[in-house]
Each structure stands twice: as structure tokens, then as C-alpha cells.
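It would be a great kindness if you could assist me with a short task in structural biology. The matter concerns a single protein, recorded as an amino acid sequence and a row of C-alpha cells. The record follows directly beneath this note:
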Amino acid sequence: MTEIAHRKYWKSLEERDLAPWSRPPCRAAIALVLAALLPLACTRAVRGEEPSATPAPAYDIDEHLDLLFRRVAGEQLRMNLFVPKTEGDRVFPGVIWVHGGGWALGTHRDLSDRARATAREGFVSASIDYRLLPKHWFADTIDDVRYSVRWLRAHAGKHRLDPDRIGAVGDSAGGHLVSLLGTADPPKPRPGDYASVSSRVQCVAALYGVHDFTDGEFEAYVVHRMPGPLKTNRDAYVVMSPIHHVSKDDPPFLLAHGTKDKTVSISQSRRMHAALRAAGVDSELLEVAGGDHGFNLGPAMSISRDEVYRRVHAFLRAKLGQPAQTPRAPAPEPPRPAGGAEEEF
């Protein structure tokens, strides 16, 4: 995807009228889509599990709940931030957790338990908000995810975070967003949005996400969130498709998907895995036999949902490493965004 095409797409989003989103027929159609996309939240039974990695030592943690990290377009975006407690100057790798919900539902609280669990294993962990559809455009969602990474890096010294070791985990729509975060080069941030700070991450774990919108399979899901139909607006669909941004400098990936997923076909993760491997990127594909969207089928699955997340944690430890005993001196904190984009605490 060329830089010119990126600019045209972002400009088209700025110029389009958002009023059609408020019309009842459109809202009803979106509600039906969301009902299919939202995974169930239930406890998984274990059957046929493979041994997981040895658990990391448990840390006590500091919790910063409902922390306001960005004001934008009339929204107040918050995160739950969990920081391992330690003595001395030890710093920890970081993890961003990005929730699912069809890009239209969910909050920073949805994956807080997951973020809290990784913090106890020695990661500075944040579960984040992002702007939601249909009120906002798709491009706004990934813009907020990138901003959250820059915000954490800018405040690394306050939270015992190693700014050079940050990973991202997401499920469903969040899986798509972290995949895009790991592959697509971002447009230049607006002045004051920590523009001098990188939003790159050092590893990505994407669970049952969409990676390609150009094959038409998901056009009905996203056409009302795009400048127009795929036939006449292919560039816009390329922009939102991680598979079309894969390059050899992408970070390591873990893709996890159920073979019985009827919402997002496992072919999405299989093709993404193949594209990453073809580019020379370190990629692992975990196929959960019998697993549906969200890994909700319990005894029908080859491994449990909890085991999937144990493997995600093991992947994070392997790619991001352990807490550093003697960190380098922290870099000066960049200037705060204009208008006071976040709270002090």
C-alpha cells in the first residue's frame, strides 16, 4: 500500500458525513453483525491439554484503574494499568490488551483480568479503550491503539516500563487491531500526540481476528464502516487488512484460532501465518481443534481456553524477556499533548 493511497483513505474519512450512522436501519444491521461477533463468556472445561510452560514468579501489583489517557473527538479514553511492584531500579516489559466487540462494543475493562494476570507474571500491562463504531470511523480505532503505545512509552519512567519491550494482545476485533498495529506503517501523528514516540511493538498475539478484508468475505460486515463498497474502494479495504502490510521487519506473531469458528474462518489466520512466514517473519499458528469463536466449546476443544492464554503468556515471556535488573537511564519524557490529554496520578 503506497503512502499516497494511505493519505487518500484517511482524507476521505475526514471529509465524509457521519450522519448516516444514526439512521435506524443502519443501526439495526450493525446490531445483527455484533451479535455474531461477540464471543460468549463462559468457563472452559479441560480435555486433552498439552503441558504449558512453567508459570513465572508471581508479583504483587499496583493498579491504576480507569486512567484517562486521551481526550479526542468528544471521547474520554481510559485504560486499566497494572504495574508489578519491585524494589530498586528493575524495569519490566509491557503488554497492551485490546478488546473485541465488532469494533463497536466493549471497554477497557473487558480484558482487565487478562492484563492483571500478565502483570502478576512480570509485565506492565494495560487494557485499553478505543473509539468505537458506528460513531467513529475504522481509522480512529487503530489510531487510538497506536496512541496508547506511544502514551505508555512516553510515561515509561513512571511505571517501571522498559520502552524497548512492548507487546500487544487482542481477541476478535482486537485481534485484528493488534495485527494491524504490528504490520502497517502508521501515518505521521498529529503534532502534540507524542509524535516523536514510536508506536511499534516487539511482538503480537492475535486471537481469532480478521486479517484480510479484500476477499469479499467480510464486506457486508464493514461496508457501512468504509468509504464505500469493495468494488469501488479497494484501497480502503487494503488499508484495514494486516495481510497486505506484511514485511520482513514485522515483529514475531502468535496467531490462535479455532477450527470450528463460524464467525471468522480459521483460513484468515492460516493465510496470515503463511504470509508472515513467506516474508521471513517469526510466526506461530496455534490451531485449536474443535474451537469456536472465542474458544467457548469446552470439552469439544482439543485444549482449553485457559491453556490458550497460558501459551500466550509463554509467547510474551519468550519474545519480551524477563525484568531487567539494571535498566538504562530513562529518557526525558516528551512534552504533554496540548489540552491535557491525560490525568496525573
